[in-house]
Design goal:
The protein has helices at about 15-25, 35-45, 65-75, 90-95; strands at about 5-10, 30-35, 50-55, 80-85. By secondary structure, it is α/β, with parallel strands linked by helices. The protein has a four-stranded parallel β-sheet with strand order 2-1-3-4, sandwiched between helices. β3 (about 50-55), α3 (about 65-75) and β4 form a beta-alpha-beta unit.
């Protein structure tokens, strides 16, 4: 990934994730899609991303758990994370912050 404009999209729904990647590419962002939290953590530790778009509902490891791992290793200024989900309740929103 490039040192600039690189975004990691983490979404278990490949259709939604691919849509985001394609839309970001139109705006000259380099985006990479992964479908699991485990893949996301591995890539965050090996490549440089300017932003992570992280779905709450992932298989095997929740988006909240992925966020906790990322935050234990990187500050918000090092790797900003935006949590996303098609359906979200208040408790999930509070936990994500």
């Amino acid at each position: 990934m490039s040192e600039t404009n690189s975004i990691l999209v983490v979404d278990a729904d490949e259709v939604n994730g691919q849509f985001l990647v394609e839309e970001l590419a139109k705006e000259t962002f380099q985006a990479r899609l992964v479908k699991s939290g485990f893949e996301a953590i591995e890539l965050v530790d090996t490549l440089k991303f300017d932003l992570v778009l992280l779905d709450l509902n992932l298989q095997g490891m929740s988006g909240i758990d992925v966020l906790k791992v990322i935050r234990s290793r990187y500050s918000q200024s090092q790797i900003p994370v935006i949590m996303m989900n098609a359906v979200i309740g208040g408790s999930e929103m509070v936990e994500a912050f």
